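User:
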Amino acid sequence: MSLDAFKRSAVLPPGAFRLVLALAVVASHASRFDIGRLAVLLFLYLSGYWVSRIYQSEFAGSRWLMFYLGRWLRIAPLYLIVMLAAAWLRGLPLSWENFTLIGVYTTGRDPTGVAWSLDIEMQFYLLVPLLFAAAWPRALILPAVTVLTALGWWIQSRFGVATVLMYLPAFALGAWNAHTRWQPGRGVALASLGAFAVFTAVTAAVPATEAFLDKTQPHPAFDQDWFSMIWMLPLIPYVAASLAKASSRFDRDVGNWSYPLYLVHVPLIALFVAHGHSKWFGVVLAPVAALTLFYGLDRRFERLRRWVLDGGRRASKPATATT
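Assistant: Predicted structure:
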């Protein structure tokens, strides 16, 4: 393989990158390696990118109610099916926030084990029209994000209420990427990947920081989310280069498959463990269940969503991304 071919293949297209993130979350729940939070923060970055582009191109102005409907139809139908099945199979009670998603992170009542991030996503969707309605002077964006993030963590510390403000930097970086249409070259992307690998290796090698990557070690006082926000920074140029790559229909399907995989893996792992079996049965079964849900339900829900957003007319082309 030539050097140029290696560089091209080393930068994953956006769908494949989303699948890698979903697999990282699965690996985190199945092993000692604490990589799941980083993957979720990168998902939030991708959400900031795609949702900003989708809102500006399709919903800006008077269509904000359709934006809310479109986002709900993207997230909720498959989630509700998996959540109800998980609650029934695991014998867990249901609360109002399990159906609205808002508040799952705060209460911790979650049969799926991963809906806390969907709670944050839904809060971000509610915030998007307000953010784009305001004319933000460029010089105030960074101070505003800093102040709002600090406010979010203060609210969580003082009142125990988790809000999207806690993760605003990840969304804001993705939205900035979308606004600037930043497209780093392959060399910059691979340098970014190398810097991320070095940062990870150093973190794992230093006794004072190895606990951030190993769940069996006593957890340091520094918050895991804060560390993960720092950890993701060297990888941002690589992510931006991935987003700039053309995505085929197959790549979009691969990326969209990551959503049912994200939803089902924790309930399956928990179910096998509860019955005295190895968690690896759940890990192996999760991709199969995810593929079944994707081809059997999720793609149908996506066609319904596009039909609703197009006012009952058949969609002329598939969406670029359905994150």
